[in-house]
Structures are given as structure tokens and as C-alpha cells.
Amino acid sequence: MGIEVVVEGLTKAFGRHVVWRDVTLTLPAGEVSVLLGPSGTGKTVFLKSLVRLVQPDAGRVVVDGVDTVTCRERQLYRARRLFGVMFQDGALFGSLNLYDNIAFPLREHTRMTEAQIRQIVLTKMEMVGLTGEEHKFPGEISGGMRKRAGLARALVLDPQIILCDEPDSGLDPVRTAYLSQLLIDLNAEIDATILIVTHDIQIARTVPDNIGMLYRGGLVMFGPREVLLTSDDPVITQFVNGRRIGPIGMSEEKDEADIAAGHAGHAGQAGQAQQAEPAGNGGARPGAPPPALVPQLEPSPGLPERQALRRRRARMLDMLATLPPRAQEAITASFGPQQSGNRP
Ligand SMILES: Nc1ncnc2c1ncn2[C@@H]1O[C@H](COP(=O)(O)OP(=O)(O)OP(=O)(O)O)[C@@H](O)[C@H]1O
Ligand SMILES: [Mg+2]
């Protein structure tokens, strides 16, 4: 069953460089969330902070009653077992073949026999499409295969919380679509809480229940997918539409230089962006109709319904009145016509 992850006031700096400050969000139990953000905004540092592979400077991360930021090593060791982490670079051991890489957490954390381990490893390898590649070494396979091996390894301990750092990078569009479906199917099967860090807009539009975005040292927003996907905030629309022109610069360095030089922030640059933007891409204009929400992926045929959906529906009804009108409309529409009477 899914476990919620409560993050409160989390702050991390390396020396004088504050990566992000005062990040507060809750990953709802069993729901799928996506964290977006330009390169260098600290998405990877955030994932690692949840399991204290990076030590945050302030704040709390509460999982199953334990604050992973401050708890003792023994509690941390137990808390970490709830997590399966798929790292951005796969983080495989170069000297071990794929089989031994994927078996590693089982040998490290359990007393299973080799026969039991073998069954789990082969099942997970099949799940991510790596059957027959057991004896290859990380250096001999493609980046996409390393990614999938990293995912298989993240899954062997049946984690209740799955963290995926850019699962799509290095994958072709077909593999990315396949992986998106795999994550939704996993969620339906084991009700795991999932956080995906990605740049992939297609994933952001089709996979998660919730979306957040890191930008310029903080969390710009975190909430139901309908809120971010119908937002007219210039930073969000630029990112979600993959536009070159807008408040987000080529690199965080440039962004920081802009801030230091006292250049116009968000709003001024967004005005400029609207003029330069070709017609037909209207999401950035306040008052323009929001881009149509595409439906969220559903589990593959034969799988159970996602348990999170029922809980989410109750959560949405509770918070509906606090959301922007477009998000309210989109959420109400997603409940189907018979539910429209629930609108406040
Ligand atoms: N161990 C470290 N020591 C010092 N600085 C670090 C360390 N790890 C990360 N940083 C810095 O923290 C910032 C955020 O890095 P992070 O890797 O989390 O970005 P990201 O959002 O994941 O980027 P990308 O989308 O390119 O993967 C960067 O400026 C990076 O240089
Ligand atoms: Mg990263």
C-alpha cells in the first residue's frame, strides 16, 4: 500500500549556493507525481535529499512516522527500504553484470536463497524488457538499457515509494511511452507512491496525478495535474510548451546573471515573449483558453483499477473550491457528467 511522503520547509545549499529553499509538499499515498524544472534547478538533489543521500540543511521529510532528515542511521536504513530509487545515470556497478547488479539489493538487504533471488531478478528483468541480457556488463549496453536495468534494480525489494530520476532520458519515444505505461501499471498493481523527475512534457501531461516545478531556488508550485497543466503562469507555460522564448534562460547560470543584473523578472520578459511567439501557441496569454488537457494514462487491460484514484477524487472534492477556476473545470470534467452537481 502506498505511503505518503511529507516534505516541510526543506532547504539545501552547497556552500553559498542555495539549491532550493523552503520546499514544502506532500506526495499523496499511492499517487503518481512529477517534478519538473530546468536543468540545474536541483531536481536530482531533491530526490537524493528524500533518502538522505544528500543531507538537507533544514526541514523535514516524514515517511511512515520517521523524519529521514534527522533520524538515526538504523531508522534511516529501515526507512530507505521503503524506497526504490532509479538514478539518473542508472548508477550500476560497472564490474557487475546486469543480473548481479539487479540482484544486489536482495543480497544486501535480505536472506533470500539464490533460487528465490533468481526468480525475482528474472521477473523484474522481463518487466523492463531486458530478458536475455543478464550477462551483459553496463559498459556494453545502450543508455536506455542501463536506465531500464536501473529501474529493475529499484523494483526488486517491492518498494512502496518509487523515485525515478529522468527515466526517459536516453530513451526513444516508443520506449518512453512504454515506460510511462509501465509506471502506471506498477502503480495499479502495488499502489506505490511514485515521484518522477523529468523534462519530458509528454510524460508530464499523461502520467502523473500531481505536478510540481522547481525554478530559481524554490518550488514554484505543486498540486493536482489540472492546476499546472491549465496554468497561465509564464514560467510554467514556457516549460510545458517547450518554448525557447520566455523567462527561462538557456542555463541556470544565465538566469542567475539576469537576476544579478536586475533584469526584468517573470512578467516583463513574458510580455516580450508573447510578442515574439508565433501565433497559435496561445497558452501564455492571460485569459486565453487553456490547452486541452489530454487524458491520463490508464492501467493496461486486465490490471486492477488504480486505488489512488478513489482517494484522489475525495481529496479533489475537498480542495476544489481553493483551486483556480480552470483547474476546477478540468477536475470536474474528469469526474464525468454525472458528478457536475458536486461543484461548489
Ligand atoms: N555534491 C554536490 N556538491 C556541490 N554542488 C552540487 C552537488 N550536487 C549537486 N550540486 C549542484 O546543485 C545544483 C542542482 O543540481 P541537480 O543535479 O540536482 O540539478 P538537476 O535539476 O537534477 O539538473 P538536470 O536536469 O540537469 O539533471 C547544481 O548547480 C549542481 O552543480
Ligand atoms: Mg538531475
Explain what you see:
The chain starts with a strand and ends in a 10-residue tail after the last helix. The strands form two sheets. Strands 6-7-8-3-9-10 form a six-stranded mixed β-sheet. A four-stranded antiparallel β-sheet has the order 2-1-4-5, with helices on one face. The radius of gyration is 21 Å and the shape is globular. Helix 3 (98-109) packs across helix 4 (114-127), helix 3 runs parallel beside helix 5 (143-155) and helix 4 crosses helix 5 (143-155). With 344 residues, the chain is α/β, with parallel strands linked by helices. Helix 6 links the parallel strand 7 (161-165) and strand 8 (193-197). It folds into three domains: 5-215, P-loop containing nucleotide triphosphate hydrolases (Rossmann fold); 231-284, no CATH class; 307-335, no CATH class. The longest helix is centred in the middle third of the chain and has 18 residues, at 173-190. The protein contains 13 helices and ten strands. Bound molecules: adenosine-5'-triphosphate (ATP) and magnesium ion. Magnesium ion binds at residues 43-44, 88, 165.
Précis, in short:
With 344 residues, the protein is of the alpha/beta class. Helix content is 39%, strand content 18%.
Relative strand content: 15-25%
Small molecules bound:
adenosine-5'-triphosphate, magnesium ion
Low-confidence stretches: 259-287, 339-344
The number of strands is 10
Which CATH architecture of the largest domain? 3-Layer(aba) Sandwich
What order do the helices and strands follow? EEEHEEHEHHHEHEHEEHHHHHH
